[in-house]
Design goal:
This protein is of the alpha+beta class and 429 residues long. It has one domain (43-393): Orthogonal Bundle (Cytochrome-c3 Hydrogenase, chain B). It is built from 15 helices and 13 strands. A hairpin with an 8-residue loop joins strand 9 (244-247) and strand 10 (256-259). Helix 4 (88-118) packs across helix 5, helix 4 packs antiparallel against helix 6 (132-153) and helix 6 (132-153) packs antiparallel against helix 8. The longest helix is centred in the first third of the chain and has 31 residues, at 88-118. The chain is globular.
Amino acid sequence: MTERVIEVNELARVEGEGALYVRLNGRQVERVEFKIHEPPRFFEALLRGRDAMEVPDITSRICGICPIAYIMSSSQAVEDATGVAVTPDIHALRRMLYCGEWIQSHVLHAAMLHAPDFLNLHDAIAIAQVNPDLVKKALRLKKAGNMLMEVIGGRAVHPVNTRVGGFYKAPSRQAIAAMIPELDWGAQAAREVALAFAGFTFPQDETDYIFVSLIHDTLYPICEGRIGSNRGLDIPASGFNDHFVEEHVARSNALQGRMRDGSPYLVGPLARYANNYHLLSEAARQTARDCGLGEVERNPYKSILVRMVEVQYAFEEAARLARAYQEPSPAFIEIPHRAGVGHACTEAPRGICYHRYEVDAQRRVVMAQIVPPTSQNQPQIEADLARVVAANLDMDDAALQWRCEQTIRNYDPCISCATHFLKLTVERV
């Protein structure tokens, strides 16, 4: 038997630094490793002893692509720990801001980082040479997402207007209303991009995923809901550690998330879509149908289509919230000095982002736990790679390497987000 080794030391078109190792012995897949070698960042240890009001500004620095996921999850967890509930107007403004993050992150990944895989091109610059209008439309869509972040959050990257309890200053009704025409354009443009992407040739691959996402009774979940699955799970955020566990593997500077029984599970667009399809707008569901998607999609390569359906929905939802906007007064709720334990989970573009904080009577953080989506997806990424490699053994090494990298990019992995987990222990003698 001949041994084949596929090794990628630096993955392209993903956020952060990761690697891939695949070893084949004849037609047997002996080893598949998705490696995260980016140095750990110890955010949970950095939070200990800090005033809980500082937590969102610190955790937002975990990621420049999806800072709102960390701001919202951490803010809501601190509010839960201190017994604070924000007003409906503050909640609606948070949801509108989160729509901006979904838009800019999804469009960046789908159009700039993932689409080249399906066009046999190396990057978005190459797409612009053959289809400049598509790239221009994608850039305008991303800019519209950034606009939401700037108007509501104060700036597009690491917003400065958010705080535990709400916002430092609520935007005026005029500022919100001024965005509506661009949001309406974005909903239609996102549909057009989704339909264009539906013309891609997708590799044949399906599996019976355990889909884990937030679920909700009336809203497509973004910054609220319970944790649910397609296997009957339905728990509050406070039950996360009862059903999920993180484990360390030597090859990765990030913990890997599994179900308590050891099963890998999938978070992100495919999971949200499968668990909450009925809560999408009718227009978004029609786009999904026109793209050839059913109510559940199990082909991971078609996640690019689900992302664009979610972009359309996010534009529609932001426009709906903008039309109904009432300036919150007050713009924030005061946070008391109170001891407690708080939990929260929101839907980052890549999947659920869980936060847990223990706070003392002086409102200082005693213990912090942050579980981002990429760490949860790592075992499922490796399972996908093993399945894809086994099904494509007749490919030459270059083609198989490309397919493996494409498989990883299905997840839009944010590797930097995942590398702050390692427990820091210092012994002083």
